[in-house]
Design a protein that fits this description.
Length: 553
C-alpha cells in the first residue's frame, strides 16, 4: 500500500507543481560523505536541502505531497568536474588523421591527410595529432608546405601542447621570420632563426585564439550547450572550464546564448602581452556572476607535459638523456606572477604545474614572498601537480594548495614500442607520479577532473582509473574517496564548499540519482553509469527512466 501511495504521489506531481513545491526524496541510499553511514531520504525547499535522514522522518515531513520514491538507488552530491576544456572551433577543411587519440597518426599519415584535405579547396586545414607526430623532429613547416602549399594548416596535439603550422598559416597569422617569442611561449626555430613551424605553449594558444576570434559566438555556444547536456546526463552539476580556446568575453557571450542548466566556473587563460600583470586585465569591470556562470579566476601554465618531454623535471627524461624539460617563465616572471596573485584576491589562481622541479620552484617562491597563512587564504589551485614529491607534501599542505588531478593521465597508454608512455618518459620514477591516496593522508585537499571534453570527461571513467592507479596501485583511491574528490573536493577547489559538494541542511540541492551503485559495482562497470535524475538548485536538469517526466523545460 505504501509503495502504491508513493507511486500515486509521483504520478500526481506535475512538472510545474514540482518546480514550486517542496520535494521529498525517499527510499534511497544517500551518500553524505566518505566514512559516514548513508541516509535514506532528504527534503528540498526553495532549491536548498532542509533535511537529510531516515525514511520515517522525511515521509512525516512530506505528508504525502511532493514525494519521490528512489527505489533504493544511490543519491550522490552533484558531481563537480574540476578541470575541463571545451572542444576547439574547427574549420571546414578537416585533415582526417587516424588512430586518435592514441598513438595518433604517423608523420606520413598526417601529411597524407593534410594533402587530401587541401585538395578539397582553399581555406584553413585543421587536424589533430598524437605523440608520434608531436615528437617527430623534422622541419614541419617545410613538410606541411609541401603537402599544402596554398592552404594555411594547423595540426594540434589533442592534449593541447604542440601545434604545427606551415608558411601559409604563419603568414595568415601575421608571424614573420623575425617575430619574437611571446611571454610564456616560444616558436621552435631553424638554424637561421626562422620558425620551423612548431608553436609552443603561449605561442600556439595565442595564435590559434587570434585565428578563431572572429568566429560567431553561436558556434561556440553549441559546444557549450552540448557539453552542458552531456555533463548533466552523468550527474555533473558544476564544471570548472579552462579557457585555452577562447578569450573570456567570447566564452561569456557563448554561454549567454547557450543558457546552461548546470553551474559553469570560468578560468581565463593567462597570456600576458608586455608584462605579467597584463593577464589580469581580462577581468576588469566584469561582473563576477551571471546566472549559472561565474568568473572564477585565471589559469597560468608554468610548464608543459611529459608527452612532449617539456614538463620541468628534477632529473633527465629516461628516454632523452640530458634533457629535463623547461619552465615557461623565468624566475623574475614567476615572482611577478605570484605578486599578481597576492594583488588580486577576488581572482583565484589556477596554476598548471606538472614536473616535480617546477612544483618545488613554485612552492619555494611562494614561501619567499608571503607567509603560508596568506597563501592559504588565496586557496591557490595546482592543476595536475602530477610530480609533487612526497618530501614536499607537508609544504603543499602548509601553503594551502589544492591539488586538482586528472585520473585520465593514469591511463597506461603505450608508446611506439608498447611501453606505457609515462614509464618510457620517467622510468622507475613513474611509480611515484601522480600521488592520490598519499595526498589525502598528508592533509592536502584533492579535487578530480578529467582534463578533457566529450566522452573522456566521463566522471565514472575517471573514478575507475583513480580506483586502479595502474602505475602505482598503492595510490588508488577507495570508491568513497574518489566520489568525495569529485564532489566536495571540487567545491573546495572553487571556494564554495559551504554551498555545495555535499548533501546536508543548508546546502544547494545539487544532486544525482545514479543508475547503479558506484560504491559496490565492479570497478570496470563504473564507466557505464548514468544519472537518472540530476537536480541543480532543486530543479531537474536531466531526467530519464522512471524520473523522465520530472524534467523541466
Amino acid at each position: 500500500m505504501r509503495a502504491c501511495l508513493s507511486m500515486l504521489a509521483l504520478l500526481l506531481l506535475s512538472p510545474a507543481a514540482a518546480e514550486a513545491a517542496d520535494l521529498y526524496l525517499v527510499n534511497g541510499k544517500v551518500f553524505v560523505g566518505a566514512g559516514r553511514p548513508p541516509a535514506q531520504a532528504l527534503a528540498i525547499r526553495d532549491g536548498k536541502i532542509v533535511a537529510v535522514g531516515d525514511d520515517t522522518a522525511i515521509r512525516a515531513m512530506a505528508g504525502g505531497q511532493g514525494l519521490i520514491d528512489l527505489g533504493g538507488r544511490l543519491v550522490t552530491p552533484g558531481l563537480i568536474e574540476a578541470h575541463s576544456h571545451v572542444a576547439p572551433a574547427t574549420s571546414a577543411r578537416q585533415a582526417k588523421t587516424p588512430n586518435l587519440p592514441w598513438p595518433g597518426p604517423t608523420p606520413d599519415e598526417a601529411l597524407a591527410a593534410v594533402a587530401a584535405a587541401a585538395r578539397q579547396g582553399p581555406g584553413w586545414v585543421d587536424g589533430a595529432i598524437g605523440p608520434l607526430v608531436a615528437n617527430d623532429t623534422r622541419d614541419w613547416r617545410a613538410a606541411l608546405d609541401a603537402a599544402a602549399p596554398y592552404n594555411p594548416v594547423a595540426l594540434r596535439a589533442w592534449w593541447g601542447h604542440n601545434t604545427l603550422v606551415n608558411s601559409a598559416a604563419l603568414k595568415a597569422l601575421g608571424v614573420s621570420d623575425a617575430a619574437p617569442d611571446p611571454i610564456g611561449g616560444w616558436l621552435d626555430r631553424r638554424a637561421d632563426g626562422s620558425p620551423n613551424g612548431r608553436l609552443r605553449e603561449n605561442a600556439e594558444w595565442r595564435l590559434m585564439r587570434a585565428r578563431d576570434a572572429g568566429r560567431p559566438a553561436d558556434a561556440f555556444a553549441e559546444k557549450y550547450r552540448a557539453a552542458d547536456t552531456l555533463y548533466a546526463s552523468w550527474g555533473v552539476t558544476g564544471v570548472h572550464v579552462m579557457l585555452n580556446n577562447q578569450g573570456l568575453p567570447q566564452a561569456l557571450a557563448a554561454l549567454e546564448i547557450a543558457q546552461p542548466s548546470i553551474k559553469w566556473r570560468l578560468y581565463g587563460w593567462a597570456m600576458p602581452e608586455q608584462q605579467m600583470a597584463d593577464a589580469w586585465s581580462q577581468f576588469d569591470g566584469r561582473p563576477l556572476k551571471a546566472g549559472k556562470v561565474r568568473i572564477a579566476g585565471v589559469k597560468w601554465v608554468l610548464d608543459s607535459t611529459p608527452i612532449e618531454r617539456d614538463a620541468h623535471m628534477s632529473a633527465p627524461y629516461a628516454d632523452r638523456p640530458g634533457w629535463s624539460g623547461r619552465s615557461n617563465y623565468t624566475d623574475s616572471q614567476l615572482r611577478e606572477l605570484l605578486a599578481g596573485v597576492l594583488a588580486h584576491p577576488r581572482q583565484q589562481a589556477a596554476l598548471h604545474v606538472v614536473g616535480d622541479a617546477e612544483l618545488v620552484r613554485l612552492m619555494d617562491a611562494m614561501e619567499a614572498m608571503a607567509p603560508a597563512a596568506t597563501w592559504t587564504e588565496r586557496r591557490v589551485r595546482i592543476e595536475h601537480g602530477d610530480g609533487l614529491p612526497a618530501a614536499r607534501f607537508e609544504q603543499a599542505r602548509r601553503l594551502g594548495l589544492v591539488m586538482v588531478q586528472n585520473p585520465l593521465h593514469l591511463d597506461p597508454m603505450p608508446d611506439a614500442q608498447g611501453t606505457p608512455l609515462i614509464v618510457a618518459r620517467l622510468g622507475e620514477r613513474a611509480a611515484a607520479n601522480m600521488p592520490l591516496k598519499s595526498l589525502l593522508a598528508a592533509g592536502v585537499p584533492l579535487a578530480l577532473g578529467s582534463d578533457a571534453s566529450g566522452p573522456p570527461a566521463n566522471p565514472f571513467l575517471n573514478m575507475m582509473l583513480a580506483g586502479i592507479a595502474p602505475t602505482a596501485p598503492s595510490e588508488a583511491l577507495s570508491r568513497e574517496q574518489a566520489l568525495a574528490a569529485y564532489s566536495a573536493g571540487g567545491a573546495f577547489a572553487e571556494g564554495e564548499e559551504r554551498e555545495k559538494g555535499a548533501l546536508g541542511p543548508g546546502m544547494a540541492a545539487d544532486l544525482a540519482v545514479l543508475s547503479q551503485d558506484i560504491l559496490t559495482v565492479p570497478l570496470e562497470a563504473l564507466p557505464t553509469t548514468r544519472s537518472l535524475l540530476t537536480l541543480v538548485d532543486g530543479r531537474a536538469v536531466h531526467a530519464e527512466g522512471p524520473f523522465a517526466f520530472l524534467k523541466f523545460p
